[in-house]
């Protein structure tokens, strides 16, 4: 029987995800992903040559390189929107790096308790 995340599990994932990024703990971030996960981010292209990243190992490599360019990266949770039946989560947050604050969100989809898809969306500057 497939493992399904509860509403509380999804809320906890959002909180732990923010905390892991704020510690610079890439291993904690990638630990939630399935080995064959897909991730999309326009910010990834300069690091890996594409905005679409396939697999946990490639995600780890991308995020290690990206964090080196963003010392002091800090996320502040705005809200987490949970779709328990659909096993999806949207984490809305403010990202602070290199003296700038901007709104962002991550769309996350889970199967059997593991993140199989993620998409990062970046928005307006937060004043």
Automatic annotation (TrEMBL):
Q: Per its UniProt entry, which superkingdom is the organism in?
A: Bacteria
**Which residue range or ranges hold the SnoaL-like domain?**
14-114
Please state what the protein is called.
Answer: SnoaL-like domain-containing protein
Q: Which organism is it from?
A: Alcanivorax dieselolei (strain DSM 16502 / CGMCC 1.3690 / MCCC 1A00001 / B-5) (Alloalcanivorax dieselolei)
